Amino acid sequence: MHVLPYLIAAYIFLTGCYGLATSRNLIHAVGCLAVCQSATYVLLLAVGYREGGTAPVFSDMRPGSRPVVDPVVQALTLTDIVVGATVTALLLALVLQIAKRHGTIDPDELRELRG
Fold first, then answer.
1. 79 to each of 30, 44, 75, 93, how far by Cα in Å?
2. Is this model's pTM higher than 0.85 or not?
């Protein structure tokens, strides 16, 4: 088992979290949240990877004769991409509404949203 994909996923996630923590712009914060989400793609594909694995199509070979990759993990990754794109689009629409109503996208200037 190789550790490199897991380290890359952790690096991408921490980079997105750092950008999210230091963001002074709501659009930048949404972008950093999307970067954090992309770390899960790398992590899921690293979990489903098999050395020398092929597609799980058994029409030309006997089952169990060679290693195959896990198609469930690939389907989860595709689902994660769709959910991530939907969440990003929703958050950008909310930022657009905040910009229209309050005239700013700086979180520090949004005093009306504080409790």
1. 19, 11, 6, 21
2. no
